[in-house]
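Re: [help] complex structure
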Amino acid sequence: MSVQQTLCRLDEIEDGGSKGLWPDMRGRALVFAVRQGDRVRAFINVCPHYGRTRLGWKKDEFLNAGGDKIICSAHGALFEVDDGKCTLGPCLGQSLEKLATIVQGGNVVANLADLPDRRPEIRS
Amino acid sequence: MQIIGPDELVFGVDNVEACREFLLSFGLTETETGLFEALDKTGLRICAEDDPSLPAPLPTSTKLRQTVWGVADQVTLDQIEAELSKDRDVHKAEDGTLFCKDDLDFEIAFRVTRRIKLSLPAEMINSPGAKPGRGPNELGSNEDAEAKPRTLSHIVYFVPDMEKCSKFYTERLGFVVTDKFTNTGPFLRPQGNDDHHVFFMIQTPPYMQGIEHLAFHMKGPTELMLAGSRMVKKGFESFWGPGRHKFGSNWFWYFSSPMGVNCEFDADMDKHDGDWINRETELSAENSQMFLFENVEKWAPGGPPQVKK
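Output below.
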């Protein structure tokens, strides 16, 4: 049986908003989630354009003004909230890596094995 | 042809308030609604994306709508008008500003520069063997110092055809190639500016066309570190840096922005004249920087061992 990991409480994500989660040792969010009502979709916080680019422009800011698209603030790529597919921008046609989550007892929960390593990355 | 550099970049954005928060934190001053200026009055104009006064957007994700180039004088403006009118419509506004498109359909404009001449001290350092930059009792560290961008330094475009783009700016507008990344793009400086580059381009597929980053010159490396550290502390997203580039030698620190473009603090860029022979190398992590650091939370070593809680 897989080990479950709580990422945050559902009410910590503003309805219609986004939140950075699962911070690494330097406090940088490795995952982010978008909430629409009781529905949460979570993604790995890496833009497919470059291997190491985090998407937001500020802590917890991952959406466009309308709140209907995920935006990478490095070069403006737009992604569908549903499936993370890039519809405009440098990574057109590619997708964010989706992270399976469930809402359980008011918490947003993922499988621990699916989550990125929180230790600072070692780069080649 | 005395073109000096970018005077103003015009953006059409979905989130004006977020851009305002970002640009004020970046150290620019909003001198009129939507106009965010550096100390010399170069800067960014932020408009709502549906503002009818804006030129049409490119069919990509870029929010850049227009690049306004500052030129030294009316003579240069007349030269540009004569040259570009040969093969395209050049619209002349009442105030003399010229509007047209470049060969890749970027909206461009030219005006007698609105930048003011700055007279400010550089970052001063003390170095053994050299005359001290700071005298006795003049301190180098001041955490409360202002850190305001001095001038809009350079812009970088993603372009679908770097040869075509480079030719337009060199052959038609007199820009000079200072260095080049093979198969990526050249660094350009106009004749009216001795900075290593005010313009660089990166070859990409057409669906990426737009602005890749923009940069402002800071007083020096210390002010750059101070400005960047303050951004990180406020929760803004560092994209790349701090570090020091090889081509141009400028220190850098890039931040992602709600304009969908990276905004760079830069400092201490090389200057060149006509004697300079440009270099060429492949674009790589090794070739694009001398070194790269990352901001970490403050920490200090002490004397005795830490007491376990």
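Chain A has no helices and ten strands.
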